[in-house]
Amino acid sequence: MKTDKNPKIMLIDTLLMLAVLTLPLLAGAFMVWFMSTGRGNPAPTQDEIETYKKNQSNNA
Hints:
Blueprint: H1 7-36, H2 46-59
């Protein structure tokens, strides 16, 4: 019985495995890039909000 696979099928299998293993790495790299290039200012902290409210009430 012959158990050797066709070389073309082996190449396709190898490329498919490489693609499947590479996609999560690319997704992780994209997520890091996306999170590090956030637009605008970050959301204020609770302390900053309370300070802003105190300043607004003192000025009124």
